Amino acid sequence: MMNREIKFKAWDKSEKRMLPWEAIRTHSLVQLLNDERLTLFQYTGLHDKNGVEIYEGDIVKTIYDTTGVITFEGCPGHIGSDSHFYSFPIYGWAIKKSGSFRSFNTVDEVIGNIYENPLKEG
């Protein structure tokens, strides 16, 4: 099993902007979790084709030209019975789909996140 760096980015609800890891890394995880202004998103340990880090809450485009939101299924290697989820095989990361695609490793590029440009269903 690969080791991955544990880091986060955070949505600042009061300033309505995404804070990168570099802006929040000096705070303890307890401080970040207890700050009601922030919503944390964990790094998956992977990058898209452009070298952009992929985080929970990111909207991604797949090689099949469909889009979805990165989420955590909680069970590494889980392939859920819910047809809306397919798991990333190492860490339990999944893509909640809006189209039809098979796995996390089909991610082509990060195209946004759920706060700054939400995925439009339908």
Structure characterization notes:
By secondary structure, the protein is mainly beta. The protein has helices at residues 21-24, 29-34; strands spanning 8-12, 17-19, 38-47, 53-55, 58-62, 67-72, 85-87, 93-97, 107-113. It folds into two domains: 8-41, no CATH class; 56-114, no CATH class. The longest helix has 6 residues, at 29-34. The chain is globular. The model is unreliable at 74-91 and 98-102 (pLDDT under 50).
Find the count of extended strands (DSSP E, 2+ residues).
9
The pLDDT mean sits at 74
**Count of the domains:** 2
Class from secondary-structure proportions: mainly beta
What radius of gyration results from the CA coordinates?
14 Å
Number of helices: 2
Main sheet: strand order: 7-8-6-5-9
Q: SSE string, helix = H, strand = E?
A: EEHHEEEEEEE
How would you sum up the major sheet? 5 strands, antiparallel
Oligomer: single chain
N-end to C-end Cα span: 37 Å
Summarize the amount of helix as a percent range.
under 10%
Strand content: 35-45%
- The best one-word shape is globular
Uncertain regions spanning at least 5 consecutive residues: 74-91, 98-102
TL;DR of this structure?
The chain is mostly beta strands and 122 residues long. Helix content is 8%, strand content 39%. The protein has helices at residues 21-24, 29-34, and strands at residues 8-12, 17-19, 38-47, 53-55, 58-62, 67-72, 85-87, 93-97, 107-113.
Secondary-structure map:
Blueprint: E1 8-12, E2 17-19, H1 21-24, H2 29-34, E3 38-47, E4 53-55, E5 58-62, E6 67-72, E7 85-87, E8 93-97, E9 107-113
